[in-house]
Amino acid sequence: MFKEVLIRTAKPADAEAIIQAHYAAVHETASAFYPPEIIEDWSRKPDEARYQWMRQIITQGNEVVIVAEDESGILGFGLMIPQLRELRALYVHPTAGRRGIGQRILQELETRAVMQGIPCLQLNASLNAEAFYLRNGYKTLSPGTLRLSTEHEMDCIKMEKHL
User: Fold this and answer.
1) Contact of 161 with 110, CB cutoff 8 Å
2) 81: CATH
């Protein structure tokens, strides 16, 4: 039986667990879809600079950051930028995968978007996440790329959903 999962607004104290979940998800879940140099550029090893960056995102208030947690800790997170009508991130730690946690995070972000009067969310889905978003009502717009650094771009899929 699965433990009860709570979806809530992220706090600065969650930053380390968020970054660790991101690192694990990218390095374990996406590694079959992208070469090692893209994986490393996409999510470098967690460190204090990354934790501080996430704390700033959470405290600045320009982005909606939510987490899924149970008694063991943070299982995943989602991030939305309301002004851009953009779903920026949704990651679930691989140890918590296939339990519907990603779908619950997505539903919460969509609910918050509707409450803010946002009629449509757009995103750049990683290749490994496209099927997840299609199952959840998103439509493919076009192939795309995301600039990760001066050296690397990653392939992605531009998608949207009318809420």
Assistant:
1) yes
2) 3.40.630.30
How far is the C-alpha of 49 from the C-alpha of 93, rounded, in Å?
Answer: 21
Structure letter (DSSP) for residue 161: E
As for how many domains the chain has, the answer is 1
pLDDT at 1 over 80: no
d(CA 79, CA 86): 9
Residue 120 in contact with residue 79, Cβ under 8 Å? no
Residue 108: domain span: 6-118
Establish if 63 belongs to a structural domain.
yes
Q: What is the pLDDT of residues 97-114, one digit of tens each?
A: 889 999 999 999 999 999
Q: What separation in angstroms does the CA of 63 have from each of 59, 70, 84, 105?
A: 9, 23, 10, 15
pLDDT at 62: 95
